[in-house]
Amino acid sequence: MAAAVDPLISEALLAAPQISDYPQFAQCEIPLQSGASRAFLGFIRPFSDDQTAREILRAVESNAQLQISSGRLSVETVPERMHPFEDYLIATAVPFTVLVAEFEGGEHPRSFLLSPKMTPRFSLSPHLRPDKYVWAGGRPYPALCVYSGNLFQYRNGEDKLQQLLDQTATYLAKYLIWLRTRQLFRRSADGSRQFVYKRKPHEPATEFDLMHARDAYWDGYWPGRLAPSGPAQHLATIKRTDECWCWSGKPYGDCCRPKEVAALKRAGSPVLASETWNRTTSTPSRTPLPEGANDNSPGWSSPRRTQPGEPADPHFRRPVGPA
User: What share of the chain is helix, strand, coil (3-state, %, to 5)?
Assistant: First the structure.
């Protein structure tokens, strides 16, 4: 248990484990100014070995059912079709130190990755909530965007934190696949991205490649379907009476919708020309693979929360340190 404790929060656990299927998590001190009512600290290791990681990649891409036990993922029936990125899944039995924050009322709990630390342009996940963060060790940690509050509904009669940790384990599995499949890109003057270097499966991604090129960055493949993101897609897929995507537990019409409508109006977006929305569950399109990559894959790039051509989400602001 001691290996799971991050000194950024506390060296001493305050209570015995309280999450039934996650005995490696225990209650810890609540991060200052987080607004949380309880906090838990522990670790999640989504893959037991590289072969399991490859099987999970196939299963996620096939939308197959996953089994999760104490944060460890498995699949009962492995899809036969190999995935072109399987060779990149090496050294995947990685543990992640995770902090979970629970809140009063209808607000959803959140999970935060404390270790390994994420580094911009190198290992920063493309799916984060920087508007919802906690302070630890003098730095902000953004919440992991493990699901859309509009699409994922907690099941009654089951431990809510256990359900969150199951979602977090799946997220971390995808994040690890993203890390292992990273390739080097560069942002051009017109905002488009250029493929710089195709890394071989056994070749490590390093920060050295970023030292002399401020516009260079590593980006990998995020498997599976993605929830609609950004104001335009939210307006097109979420009814006013549906729960908001932001985890507040409030109806979309009483929460983020007015702000997103205002943001689109400021940008002069044509999506507001009609109040008749086509509800869809389609995944945002991905850019093509780099030259030489297997074209059987959907693509390398991971759509960010704010899609090209849309205004930045009004909730997303740079965190300011506690007073």
Answer: 20, 20, 60
